[in-house]
Amino acid sequence: MNFRMHRYILGRLCEVFSGLLLLPLLVALLYREGRTIVFPYLITGLIALACGVLLAWKKPERRKLYRRDGLIIVAVAWIFFALMGALPLLMTREVSSLIDGFFEMASGFTTTGSTIFTDVEALSHATLFWRSLAHLVGGMGVLVFALAIIPGIGAESTQLMKAEVPGPTFGKIKSSTRESARVLYLIYLGMTAILVLLLLFGGMDLFDALIHAFGAAGTGGFSNKNLSIGAFHSSYIEIVLALGMLAFGVNFNLYYYFLLTKGKKWPRSEELNWYLAIVALTTVGVGVNILPQYLQRGESWLTALKDSFFNVSSIITTTGFGTADFVEWPLFSHLVLLLLMFCGACAGSTGGGLKVARIVIGSKTAVNGAHQSWDPKRTLPLRFDGEVMEHSALRKVFAYYFVYIGLFLVFMFPVSLDCGNFELAFSAVAATYNNIGPGLALIGPRGNYAFFSPFSKFVLSLAMITGRLELYPMLALCTLPSAAAAERHLRQLRHRE
Question: What is the pLDDT of residue 152?
Answer without folding.
Answer: 52
